[in-house]
Amino acid sequence: MVLRPPVEPMLAQARDTVPAPGALPGELRFQPKFDGYRALVFTPWPAPGPLLIQSRRGSLMQSRFPDLMAAAAHLPDGLVLDGELIVWVEGQMSFEALQRRAVSGGRTAARLAREMPAHFIAFDLLQLDGQELLHVPYGERRAHLEELFTDRGLGAPWTLCPETTDPATTKEWLTSWTQVPGVEGLVIRGSGQRYLPGARALYKVRRRDTTETVVGAITGTVGRPQTLMLGRLDAEGVLRPVGRSTPLRPDAARDLAERLTPAGPGHPWEGVRFTTSWGSRTPLDVVLVEPELVAEVTVDTAQERGAWRHPVRFARLRLDVEVTDVPPFGARAEPASR
């Protein structure tokens, strides 16, 4: 069977800690988790044709990335790669730039390709020389992928995802590499795993840090808060939104309900439009509260323009910390204890 888009990518389930040996079939293999767009790359087979780039949800988006299409000549025909699209700007990965590129076409896409070059980080091989490899154990697929990069002398924009089986290196990646914008944590695979399209058969561990934020609004009601809208003061002392919490535990919600005060006139978020998630346009109904409570939260490293893109986890109220003692808007968090 020759693979053609759309092909559902194999997915990962989140874990809080690195799994023990034996958690997946075969030897555990660890890779850095990059903060980009999941994508599959198809080279033509058997007839000549263009390079195809498929998003995680199955849409084709190669026209948005003319720089990758221009580099298709370096790849053999009959190839399907699974990996992550990233964009490099001013010496670091930028998710905001990647979003711009993913929605731009025509002359704008060509200009952005010059200004914000894309890279494809390959971490799995699904087809080689027109032969699908879904049934082949991951360890063998990885060996073929490494041979492909070596034999073809592949370089930018094609990048081979680093991989290790060494626990010390894994710890280094999770602690040090995640200090680099665009690296979120680890993806864990088993060397004996087949490729299972659409299945959450891999593991991912995001680095989580602990920090303080200010409670500025809630969803639900003051008597029954459901989630928290969190902020930090900028250099001018203005409270800026930085994130939204996951749903509160019942005990945390009860504790907060006893301490929340409905906002009076002049709240800094009057007129601010909140949405259900990062990048969404769906409005979210919130209740403004007096910004006087400090919440300790755990966060991942996916931060853009001073705000966390993914929901944060509420840990506890910090009644011993003043609002003015909270780290300023734009500050990064400290590693959480494990």
TrEMBL record:
Domain of life: Bacteria
EC number of the protein: 6.5.1.1
Residue stretches making up the ATP-dependent DNA ligase family profile domain: 111-216
Cross-referenced InterPro entries: Adenylation_LigC-like (IPR044119), ATP-dep_DNA_ligase (IPR050191), DNA_ligase_ATP-dep_C (IPR012309), DNA_ligase_ATP-dep_cent (IPR012310), NA-bd_OB-fold (IPR012340), OBF_LigC-like (IPR044117)
Signal peptide: none
Pfam families: DNA_ligase_A_C, DNA_ligase_A_M
Class of enzymatic activity (EC top level): ligase
Reaction(s) the record says it catalyses: ATP + (deoxyribonucleotide)n-3'-hydroxyl + 5'-phospho-(deoxyribonucleotide)m = (deoxyribonucleotide)n+m + AMP + diphosphate
Keywords from the UniProt entry: Ligase
Family statement drawn from the similarity comment of this UniProt entry: Belongs to the ATP-dependent DNA ligase family.
MF terms (GO), sorted A to Z: ligase activity
Name this protein carries in UniProt: DNA ligase (ATP)
